[in-house]
Design the sequence.
């Protein structure tokens, strides 16, 4: 067996949570491989909305095991809140959730450092979710981090104090002591609460599962253009959000990767700072935000909106080796007379069809092709046989340009508003 991967091809919030939830019945295990509580994955079914931050989106299906892999960073406080909210709804979390011993911990001081770092950056701030992601991955690669497994060692408190001492050195005179005291007590209580969740060597568990014929889906967080190596650096997150991140974030060998499902919106959004060539700072962008309800699932911030960007998407398909695509939120475009697609960038009068290295420094003029809108409500269609021709033409055009089939078309936020083609 091989591990299938599902990840975002844009700047996050493509609808990963929804599609993982939809396809979970086909899998035995759903495994998150990177990111942490900066993610917000929304699931809507039976008239209820759920937002998950650290827990994989397979948690609502009884017979699926959910793994938080070694590549994920965990804030015990957020994870506890997530588990309690699920338990209050009758979801059996304890039975269906396991965590890698090697996943790193977000300490209260990591969150304070995140805020401090953004303040120092001034107008160049990244627009971080301030969940402590960057500082935690820095301590991981700096070989100072604390892992979930360490919490059950006798010298855990000592390790904790050593790392906090290092953070105190960086924070200097920055005001944080009262805040830290309050955060620390909640943090330790949350760790105590989490002692009921099993910690495992997840790389072994997952490879054993594969060898015994189990089906695994790896769930990405963020999106390709937020990848630490391939995204719009430095306006990115601190992990590898691309397919390769599955190998390091779960311990899956490259030759064990199966299908790679890349998710994209029929238009484009970004939350936080950084370049966004097709951004619309006009009433069209405002309409996309309103109709698409484009407000952050984690921070509530307005998401920036714009037209679909083919050079960026082609790049994302290439980097991930996407074998199949899911197109999300097509219904948001239902009322538009025409739909613009960015086919190229113009930089200093020269046409480019890929993302430039210095994307932040150059002025990019997006070159658009206009396609006719379908002007029909898609939200209740159950198959593409009911779809208008202009919509089918839009799908066919994107499939041809991206050279990859679109196997899933999503026409509304609910689990049921999903058309599976293959
Ligand atoms: P994720 O981070 O990739 O899981 O995506 P988010 O949950 O942050 O953002 C996606 C948003 O779009 C959520 O509010 C979803 O409920 C919503 N959504 C997902 N698919 C569709 C769709 O096809 N149509 C509409 N209108 N909304 C959708
Ligand atoms: P999901 O999984 C959209 C953005 C932040 C900021 C940058 C760095 O829901 O798609 P960080 O907190 O990682 O230091 O923030 O990345 N960002 C996201 N944008 N969706 C996400 O996750 C994101 N996670 C981080 O807004 O610009
Ligand atoms: Mg999200």
Sequence:
């Amino acid at each position: 067996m091989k591990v299938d991967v599902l990840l975002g091809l844009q700047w996050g919030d493509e609808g990963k949570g929804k599609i993982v939830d939809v396809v979970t019945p086909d899998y035995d295990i759903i495994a998150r491989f990177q990111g942490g509580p900066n993610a917000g994955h929304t699931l809507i079914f039976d008239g209820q909305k759920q937002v998950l931050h650290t827990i994989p989106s397979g948690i609502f299906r009884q017979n699926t095991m959910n793994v938080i892999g070694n590549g994920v960073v965990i804030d015990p406080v957020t994870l506890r809140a997530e588990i309690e909210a699920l338990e209050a709804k009758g979801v059996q979390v304890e039975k269906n959730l396991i965590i890698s011993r090697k996943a790193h911990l977000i300490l209260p001081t990591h969150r304070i450092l995140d805020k401090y770092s953004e303040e120092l950056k001034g107008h160049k701030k990244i627009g971080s979710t301030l969940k402590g992601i960057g500082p935690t991955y820095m301590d991981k690669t700096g070989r100072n981090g604390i892992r979930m497994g360490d919490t059950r060692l006798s010298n855990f408190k000592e390790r904790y104090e050593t790392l906090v001492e290092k953070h105190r050195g960086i924070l200097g005179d920055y005001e944080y002591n009262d805040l830290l005291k309050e955060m620390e007590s909640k943090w330790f209580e949350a760790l105590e609460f989490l002692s009921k969740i099993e910690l495992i060597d997840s790389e072994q568990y997952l490879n054993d599962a594969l060898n015994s014929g189990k089906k695994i889906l790896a769930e990405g967080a963020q999106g390709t253009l937020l990848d630490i190596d391939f995204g719009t650096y430095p306006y990115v997150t601190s992990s590898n959000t691309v397919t390769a991140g599955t190998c390091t974030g779960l311990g899956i060998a490259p030759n064990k990767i199966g299908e790679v499902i890349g998710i994209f919106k029929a238009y484009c959004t970004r939350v936080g700072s950084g370049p966004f060539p097709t951004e619309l700072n006009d009433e069209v962008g405002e309409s996309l935000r309103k109709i698409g309800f484009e407000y952050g699932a984690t921070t509530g911030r307005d998401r920036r909106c714009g037209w679909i960007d083919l050079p960026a998407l082609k790049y994302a398909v290439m980097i991930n080796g996407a074998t199949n695509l899911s197109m999300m939120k097509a219904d948001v475009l239902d009322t538009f007379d025409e739909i613009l697609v960015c086919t190229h960038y113009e930089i200093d009068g020269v046409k480019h069809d890929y993302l430039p290295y210095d994307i932040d420094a150059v002025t990019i003029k997006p070159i658009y092709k206009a396609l006719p809108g379908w002007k029909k409500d898609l939200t209740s269609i159950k198959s593409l046989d009911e779809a208008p021709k202009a919509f089918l033409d839009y799908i066919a055009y994107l499939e041809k340009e991206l050279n990859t089939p679109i196997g899933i078309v999503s026409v509304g936020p609910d689990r049921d508003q999903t058309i599976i083609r293959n």
User: Anything to note?
Assistant: The pocket of guanosine-5'-diphosphate (ligand 1) is lined by residues 8, 12-18, 39-42, 44, 292-293, 297, 328-329, 331-332, 410-413 (CB under 6 Å). The first strand starts at residue 3 and ends at 8.
